[in-house]
Amino acid sequence: MVTLHSLLRWLVLLGAIAALVGYGRAVARSRMDDLAARLGSVYAMLLGLQFLVGVVLWLVQGRWDGDNFFLSFIHPLLMLGAVGLASAGAARARRSGNAVIGLVAVIASVVVIVIAVPSGSWTL
Ligand code: HEM
Predict the structure, then answer these.
(1) Which pLDDT tens digit goes with each residue over 55-92?
(2) Which of 5, 15, 90, 99 makes an SS bond possible with 46, Cβ 3.0 to 4.6 Å?
(3) Torsion, Cα of 83, 89, 90, 94 (10° steps)
(4) How many domains, in total, are found in the chain?
(5) Residue-range definition of the domain harbouring residue 22
C-alpha cells in the first residue's frame, strides 16, 4: 500500500502537467475544448484515487496515533483541500466553458500538494 501510494504520486504529477498543458492551451486560444476538460477530469480523478489509497494506508498504519503529527493530520487535511480544488475546478471549468477556472484550480491544487508532501520525500 505504501508502494502504491508512493508510485501513484508520479501519475498525479503527470496528470497535473497534462491538465496544465490542456487548460493552458485552451486559455491561449481563448476557447475551452474537450481535451482540456478531459485532462482536468483525469487529474482530479487520479488525485481522488491517491486520496483513497492514502486513507487506506492511514487506517492500515494506525496513523491516528498522531506519532508523526504532519503525516497523521496535516498531510491528509491539506490533500483533501487539493482534491476539492481540483475536482471543483474541473467541474466548474467544464460547466462554464471557462478554461481559466480550470488552470487556476490546477495551479492552486499543486501549490497545496507541494506544501503537504513530507519534506523527506522530495528525493528520488
Ligand atoms: C490525494 C493526494 C495525496 C498525495 C499526492 C500524497 C502524496 C504522498 C507522498 C508523496 C508521500 C511520501 C511517499 C514516500 O516518501 O514514499 C505520502 C506519504 C503518506 N501519505 Fe499521502 N498523499 C495524498 C493523500 C493522502 C491521504 C488522504 C492520506 C491519509 C488519509 C495519506 C497518508 C499518507 C501516509 C500515512 C504516508 C506515509 C507513508 C509511509 O511512508 O509510511 N496521503 N503521501
Answers:
(1) 999 999 999 998 999 999 999 999 999 999 999 999 99
(2) 15
(3) 160
(4) 1
(5) 2-118
Residue nearest to atom 1 of ligand 1 (CA): 51
- The model carries a pTM of 0.94
In a domain, 44, yes or no: yes
From the CA of 119, how far away is ligand 1's center (Å)?
12
Distance from the alpha carbon of residue 54 to the mean position of ligand 1, in angstroms: 5
Q: Is 71 in the pocket of ligand 1 (CB under 6 A)?
A: yes
Q: Is 58 in the pocket of ligand 1 (CB under 6 A)?
A: yes
Asked, for residue 124, whether it belongs to a domain, the answer is no
Q: Is residue 114 part of a domain?
A: yes
pLDDT digits (tens, 9 = 90+) for 28-57: 999 999 999 999 999 999 999 999 999 999
Is 123 inside a domain boundary?
Answer: no
